[in-house]
Amino acid sequence: MITRMENTTRIQTGIRLDASLYEKLKRNAKKERRSLNNYITRILENAVETDIPKLDPSSFEIDDDLKQLGGLIGSVSDEQIQQDPRLKSILAL
């Protein structure tokens, strides 16, 4: 099943879990007052986010060459810039 909510496409999937893991996940979700689906989704999102570099603009200086390159890239929508931390650090100066 595919549903569309808040400009995101969601798919329904089934996974196999060890029964004890499933129970632990349910308990933890209940402690945080979240649905099991929301709790697992947040865990997976956090795991995937580690693959995206966290750029702190204050930790580096963007030189003129990089600024010029940003200008050559062309028209990039604000939405694209906000979704990509690399674009955000280069173009949202």
Detailed description of the structure:
By secondary structure, the protein is mostly helical. It has two domains: 2-49; 57-91, no CATH class. Helix content is 54%, strand content 9%. It is built from five helices and two strands. Strands 1-2 form a two-stranded antiparallel ribbon. Strand 1 and strand 2 form a beta hairpin. Helix 1 crosses helix 2.
Furnish the topology, listing elements before pairings.
Layout: E1 2-5, E2 8-11, H1 19-31, H2 36-49, H3 64-73, H4 78-83, H5 85-91
Antiparallel strand pairs: 1-2
User: Within the largest sheet, what's the order of strands?
Assistant: 1-2
**Which bin fits the share of residues in helices?**
40-55%
Any idea what the shape is? elongated
SSE string, helix = H, strand = E?
EEHHHHH
Biggest sheet descriptor: 2 strands, antiparallel
Distance between the termini: 41 Å
Find the structural class using helix and strand composition: mainly alpha
- Based on CA atoms alone, the radius of gyration comes out at 19 Å
Summarize the structure.
This protein has 93 residues and is mainly alpha-helical.
What key phrases describe this protein's structure?
9% strand, 93 residues, two-stranded antiparallel sheet, elongated
